[in-house]
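Quick one: co-fold with cytidine-5'-diphosphate.
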Amino acid sequence: MSKRTKWDTKGDLDESKNLPIYQHKATLQQAVKDNSFLVVTGETGSGKTTQLPQYLHQAGFWSNGKIGITQPRRVAAITVAQRVSQEMHCSLGREVGYQVRFDDCTTQDTVVKYMTDGCLLREILADPVLSQYSVVILDEAHERIVYQNKWWDKASKGRCVPLKVVVMSATLETDKLSVFLGGCPVFTIPGRTFPVTSKFSCAIGPKDTESSVYVKEVVKVALDVHTSEMAGDILVFLTGQSEIEKACDMLYEKAESIDYRYDVQDHKVEGLLILPLYGSMPTDQQKQIFQPPPPGIRKCVVATNIAATSLTINGIKYIVDSGFVKQLNHNSRVGMDILEVVPISKSEALQRAGRAGRTSAGKCFRIYSPAFWEKCMPEYTVPEIQRTSLTAVILTLKCLGVHDVIRFPYLDRPEERFILEALKQLYQCDAIDRRGKVTRLGELMVEFPLPPGLTRALLQAASLGCEDLLLPVAAMLSVENIFIRPGHPEKQKEADKKHRQLGVQAGSCNDFTMLLSVFEKCKASDAPSAWCKDNYIHWRALKSAFSVETQLREILLRLQKRDFPMEKFDGNKSELFRRCLCTGYFTNVARRSVGKVFCTMDGHGSMVHIHPSSTLFDQEAQLDWVIFHDLLVTSRIYIRTVCPIRYDWVKDLLPKLHEVDVYELSSVAREEVTDEEVAKWVTKEAAKRQTEGSAEDVF
Ligand code: CDP
Ligand code: MG
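Sure, here it is.
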């Protein structure tokens, strides 16, 4: 174990010379000079992300423009930029910076810029030839290299110096990547790893998918490793923030009672340092993860899947694998994207285990049984583009001028029904017209890093001059959960009571106004962090919501300077808020059928319940129509962040849920059609609706 407790920059620089990529520095620099497109692959941890941009910087590429590197996740972009700025001896935001959704840490001096895919796309929209860049590196390309094909075709034309595009990936799908880039060369960094022995256990079988069961088990196994294995750090894989926090709490508690004289095998080990790692963690805490622990202390990092490919932590010798991951999946039962906890794939399990063998032989403890491996785990992980809603991707493609989104050469082609679903949603929120062309509203929507429904509601509010109501709500829905629910039953009761009080104070009680009220109350408070503590609210989450709100406001102000559609509203002011929500959320509408059961009206007709965390829970009897922000699927389907509405407000919108025939929409989108053809189609649609009965009858 390392004896250093603080960053020893000199030592780290030397460390970077030990990375497998270092021997290939000159060859890589030359390869990028010689080729417009290049694929680089190498095992996770070989130094691709941190080193290649520096090599290109040293080779002088910056003199023609920035070196941009995209990351699929924001945490990766931030932490890697931090690391690289240290290696390059500059303060973060100067030569080396990052830009992620809602956080821009770059200056005029920045020449090495880490960013998320979304940020790059937004830059492409503003400047299709990417004139500020000399090189763009698409990192972890296997994750989501969807829509990038078209832009570099465009970007390479109309520039004095051609743009260099490097695509990096840890997987072996390099041939596919090379073909995608028109058959460019592939550079493979030879690996250097040590054997990892993996062991199954019988604790988790095919039926044990309850979070509480596997969290308890990983804690037990991690403690076993700590007490019975030789020195070396532990990496535990769990699925998300709340689980990770729970596991850390349990670990703290149990680690306290260890007697290091008797309980621990390796006498050099004298303590355990427990560190959580998940996406929405504050940046200063993330830094700590990469620092070597003090002498004699074993580090135990409890992480989400982010530690599997995007981030490499040095010194890890033991892996504790829960076998689960939280994934955004398109759920066809309810017709929406839902975050679900699912078993990992076998290839993912191998990748996780491999994290233990970077510097010496390692061990991987799988808490699941061989039967679980056989029965529950798929061979490979399906790329995100193939399993999630494509609305953002399709809208961006359309704004980039790709009209035929069906025949677009995707790297990982999504199923056609997902593309059709996205077209339908975009049409429903007025982002595209019947011909599949982007509308003025669509051009505005693509600027916001928010889901389309929420953006639509926000733009509606802005056009009616009441954005102050929607901006905080949009911000609150963009950060992690703000309500704290402690594990202790007594405290839980108290927290629930406080939250209920906040709800009551919010006047017209619904979950959206509740978010607004928490935001405003905290903002107005003299001691916001104390206010949060007192009300069982995550201060950290709220702080990010404040910052997100400011940034959304900036985007909106920028758009409002151009010709921004304005409307008038004559109705009751107090309705305004909910009616704006309806414009975006009418696709998520449900009506109470019997008792506490609601039925969604989007054609899926799912039976849903109001989630217990809602302010409207237990008041179902008084409700009729509601809209909701999202769904949670467990043994039941729950709707979360709920707001009662009146049928009147969605009446004119609801036909849109049914009138559009996606096949028509996409085939219209395929070719340039004449006005007459569209007119013919519209008449046909209208006739069809008549025979099916009016929307009023349907509802
Ligand atoms: O991209 P690839 O997986 O090939 O490797 P990398 O992310 O560039 O990691 C190279 C080395 O930098 C590893 O040893 C990491 O542990 C280290 N690193 C770090 O210490 N702190 C960071 N924030 C990021 C990487
Ligand atoms: Mg990497």
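If it helps, The first helix runs from residue 9 to 17.
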